[in-house]
Request: fold
Amino acid sequence: MQWINILANSLQVQAWQVQNTIDLIADDKTIPFIARYRKEKTGELNEIQIREIFDEYNTQNKLTERKKEILQSLENQQVLTEELKKAVEHAESMKSLEEIYLPYKKKQKTRADVAVEKGLKPVSEWLLTTKIKNDDFVKKYINQEFELYNIDDVLLNSCDILAEELSYNTDIRDFVRENLLRNGIIETKKNDKVDDEREVYKGYYDNSFKVFSIPEWRVLAINRAEKEKKIKIKLVLDWNRFNPFLERKTGEIELEGLVLMLMKIAKIRDSHPYFELLNSMTKDSLKRLILPAIEREIRADLTERAENRSISIFQSNLRHLLLTPPLKKKSILAIDPGYRTGCKVAVIDENGVFLDNTNIYPTPPFKKIVEAGQILQKLVSKYSVKLIAIGNGTASRETEDFVSDFLKDYPELKYIIVSEAGASVYSASEAGLEEFPELDVTVRGAISIGRRVQDMLNELVKIPPESIGVGMYQHDISVNALKQKLSLETESVVNLLGVDINTASEYLLQYISGLSKKTARNIVEYRLENGLFKSRKELKKVKGIGEKTYEQAAGFCRVPESDNPLDNTIIHPESYQEAERIIKYSGFKLSDLKSNRKSLIDAFNKLEYKTIAKELTLAEILVKDIITAITEGLNDPRDEYPQMQLKSKVNSFESLYLGAQLEGIVRNITDFGIFIDIGVGHDGLAYRSTFQDYQQDLYYPGQLVTVEVINIDEKNKKSGLKLI
Reply:
């Protein structure tokens, strides 16, 4: 297949690597499984490359199915010629395929259809080929019944057929599309019929943007403003750029020039006996059919590009969040701050098990600081609390001040500020209700805040992706697309880390390669009935997990409690025998992986994996992976990321002032700037214009930064920031 060679060239790999990967995908092998355990077959393709192959494979399958549908439709319409069949079969993209099918696509009755019903098809064909005026020929089609009272009626109605045919001309469509892409301008105007009290879209009241250079985030902003009916949008040609290439005539100079170009493409010469009539027809086709269709197409393409970019940003930000280092083995007192309703407090043990909850009122209007301190004192003492987690929403700063003062008597205790994005959504969700049916929604929110500190990965999978609080206009993007990226990134992180099946929730377990929501739930139920898993093999006892599912999942499931230390590595059970041979070759026993791991690692570091592979007649890739899994695989990559805390004297939006320098935590990265939590209940924005050289990949969610306040919008509670 040609597309395999094209894709191989694009990825700079061999065609056989792509083909082998496709064969594995067709055999229902997951991307993480292929990337981790089938390196020999793929030639060590990485996860990103495999994902691209996977996407293209699905695209080609959809293209094939659509070709079948179109061919069947054309055959049913009795219009399928050999030439048309070849054109359909050789179409290389969905876009080109749909263009071929466009004239035959079922649609609402058009002016052209009505003209055909009046029997004017022969006249339209004659108009294009005739070299002389012939009123006698036209007169034959005058018909009172069809409201064709004279020659002009016949000719004008016949032109409706030509106008539609012209709009399907691929050369003309390509010409108009190319010029709108190159010289098109998106004009935005305020809709005076709709109020925009907060002036959210003020920048789009009377503005214009070049199609070829408009940033993706502006496209999404324009789309949202249009959807809310705050602005009106029009796509026009920049005639100043376009006109030099056109022959001009009097009248509508710009449009006329374009019409003449289209007539030229359609091979209608100015010597044609009905030139003026065909000129009017072409103008009608352009204004009524071609330009609106191409405008819709370009708007759709711009939107698709913008949404893909938004999803890409969401995916990147999400990965950083999922890799937030967990604070393991710490009992946590979590606080969901508030004013009038007080601060909701929840205590969870080192495994995330809910222990206790209450309310305290240290913030305005009550300011019961002494009483709140006494309550915290009892909870800290009773449950041996090791860390206090504070949500970053409303009243966060006042709560932080209170906690900071409280901890003066507890020097061993620390606190951390946590993003509470999506916590309220989780608390009212089916997942929250299932976990804590007896608790109030506000308490569930506090629990979620605390659990995020213990393991962000385990907690975020319970929250709808659009509510996680990262991305660019993520609320305007397809929820299904975001869910897909959440799934892919979670799978990827699981592939990187592995999952402890004795502690993971069913929401995390379902992202393990090969597992479904049902089998994940079955694992949790088995765990509740039979106690902790003692080995990977025990997974086979779980309902719904057969040999095929086990093959896919086993390598990503960690069992620290197993007697076999390999069960707590990323080494797949299918390679245990080889792993034991390698350990034995280095002069150690399998049990040394637990009791004498440092010495074992030292021994491996002195050996060449190529030598081991040769001596034991094993594949080099396999030996390398096994050694890496033993020497590095028990370490959590998330531990490399520093834990961040937030401290500042500014604690409300009203207390902000120009020039104030604050510490903040990066919450979200977009193409137009970085959102930073400065602890006032509303994230500030450092616009890309404030950066000398804006490089998004230098920043990540959770990063501690220092900022200066450079703008304050009191009306909309927005602050402009500059990174220092």
About this structure: DSSP finds 31 helices and 15 strands in the chain. The longest helix spans residues 275-322. The longest strand covers residues 704-713. Residues 272 and 448 are 76 Å apart (CA to CA).
